[in-house]
Amino acid sequence: MSQALENLLSEDRKFEPEPEFIEKANGKMGIHEEAAADYLAFWQQQALSLISWDAEPTQVLDDSNPPFFKWFSDGRLNVSANCLDRHLDSHGDQVAYYWVGEPGETRTLTYRELHAEVCRFANGLKSLGVAEGDRVAIYMGMVPELPVAMLACARLGLVHSVVFGGFSSEALSSRILDADARVVITQDGAWRAGNVVPLKANADIALSNTPGVEHVVVLKRTDHGVEMTEGRDIWWHDLVEGQPEECEPVILGAEDPLYILYTSGTTGRPKGIVHTQGGYLTGIAATHHYVFDLKPDSDVYWCGADIGWVTGHSYIVYGPLANRTTSVMYEGAPNFPDLDRLWQIIEDYKVSIFYTAPTAIRTFMKWGDEHVIKHDLSSLRLIGTVGEPINPEAWIWYQKTIGGGRCPVVDTWWQTETGAIMITPLPGVVPTKPGSATIPFPGIFADVVDDAGESVPLGGGGYLVLTKPWPAMARTIYGDDQRFVDTYWSRFPDRYFPGDGAKRDEDGYFWLLGRVDDIMLVSGHNISTTEVESALVSHVSVAEAAVVGRRDDLTGQAIAAFVTLRAGVEGDEALLQALRDHVSQTLGPIAKPKSIVFTDDLPKTRSGKIMRRLLQDISEQRQLGDVTTLANETVVQEIAAKSSVSTED
Ligand code: ATP
Ligand code: MG
């Protein structure tokens, strides 16, 4: 990173926490220091106190073959027994999930009921002749049977690969083939925004070129008719019919695989990330416990992600259930039937902890406060965010409007590959600053380095790296160890490189700057897309912004911005000029966008992340790259049409 970037980054647009808070927090920093003093002892203690083992591990970390690290490798356990069985004696009647269907019906599942459903389904799977280690693809919507299917796989030592229900047949078949799945679990259709997504029909298309699949289990959720293939397809209700409500969990080694999950595809072809049993469960149980300050007897927790992403795996299914949490699970779209659906649910269930993504927060801002404030959200005590850098403006709106000004915000940085939250405040312990994910979780070690891998002094920016292994880390990319080494462990030897840029301020707080591939080089200055986007979003008229560096003969790269406006604002020439001036004032003239295109929406992955690389392709008039995870294709055409007539000076 150049000096120019450092100058730019150190521009003081930070929000200082109140001094009393820092004072209060300083006394409690103990857990970070304790973990730093002996991180292996810290993780061993988490593993032994949060997890039930059938054979307790004696070895914590095996680093004999880096980067293929192993954790707790002589430990033995079953993840589904940890999530269910061990809670039954004293808390069997506690609610595990309050489920809300999109059309309006509800279901309540206690731990005892969930356990029974998992056992019946696991027994059903056994009757199909599956064997430990077999891969099972799960292509479902947000229904209780999705965690049931995952936990049944975990119970039997089957490796699940959940494919987000919003994906196309093509995305499904490539994931089935990549993991060589023998079984596919799906449903007739899933409710989304008042329509039925025909999952089984999509799966049928995918299955036409996946000869390895022997069985397809189909849950009946809607009245959507489906075709069943004789000898291959079986209804869920027929499979579980007459099955006993007990099923002995298979005791597995800590390092046996638990699941494969593909990354979001924001930066290119998705990677099949492999997570294992013991280290993963330890990492997510510990982070879920501390980051959300979880009180299992009284909290009602709601993670609004889809289970098809890692956030759902770790913080809707495995982490919350391991910690005996009562969760809300919602099936459908946030704007169905009205724009206040989520706030209605929070009010109805008295949700105390809410976890969502910046893309959702910016959308709620755009929809307007009136949909929020008509509901009583006073039950909330903690709110979180994950998925992208959160613009300070959106952070403050979230804290004030959703959090009522009283809830701490936990901005959690992590990835599919890290399995668990890595950089995050701990509520009441680490003072927050809007837009900063603050500091690494206890027992996690991060640094910011320059091109040569040298640590950058506080106040500077560079590449984010994790400097020590951690329990929930990915073990490999499925079937491609070399890609695992090349992608994450080659850029900086002995350190994990997540692909993100970051800066650290004088307090040692981390500020995520987006993907390093997205960092722009304008007239010799490195400029972060995230910072320019946050500057744009801090303007009253702007709801959301995406920025890319477009090839420019004069300056190397020129900043091209794509902006969506808040409800009721008209995008005209005067606003365009005002936005350019606003960025110039906020970050300096060098960061001023050369072109700004107003658009109704931005190209996003199906998990809601802005796909800057497509905007760059458009800006440089190239063929679009991998679009298999793109959510909104028409938006790309709309932007492409507008870009060719965009204003410039
Ligand atoms: P792909 O790896 O296929 O390009 P992806 O990186 O979007 O897709 P995920 O694993 O879902 O796939 O996302 C992890 C990435 O999301 C992180 O590397 C980071 O860029 C971004 N991210 C997640 N949480 C935060 C956060 N709190 N602040 C900033 N960035 C975040
Ligand atoms: Mg990634």
Provide an overview of this structure.
With 649 residues, this protein is of the alpha/beta class. It has 2 domains: 11-262 and 276-502, Rossmann fold (3-Layer(aba) Sandwich), CATH 3.40.50; 523-648, GMP Synthetase, Chain A, domain 3, CATH 3.30.300. The strands form 9 sheets. It has an 8-stranded mixed β-sheet with strand order 12-11-8-6-7-14-15-23, with helices on both faces. Strands 16-18-19-20 form a 4-stranded parallel β-sheet, with helices on both faces. Helix 4 crosses helix 11 (278-291). The chain is globular and about 70 Å long. Mean pLDDT is 93; it is low at 1-27.
* Heterogens: adenosine-5'-triphosphate, magnesium ion
Beta-strand percent range:
15-25%
> Structural class, please?
alpha/beta
Tally of domains: 2
Q: What would you give as the CATH superfamily of the largest domain?
A: ANL, N-terminal domain
Helix % is 25-40%
Distance between the termini: 28 Å
Instruction: Could you tell me the CATH topology label of the largest domain.
Output: Rossmann fold
The CATH class assignment of the largest domain is Alpha Beta
Mind telling me the C-alpha Rg? Answer: 24 Å
Shape: globular
Multimeric state: single chain
Strand order of the largest sheet: 12-11-8-6-7-14-15-23
Count of beta strands: 30
CATH architecture of the largest domain: 3-Layer(aba) Sandwich
Q: Major sheet, described briefly?
A: 8 strands, mixed
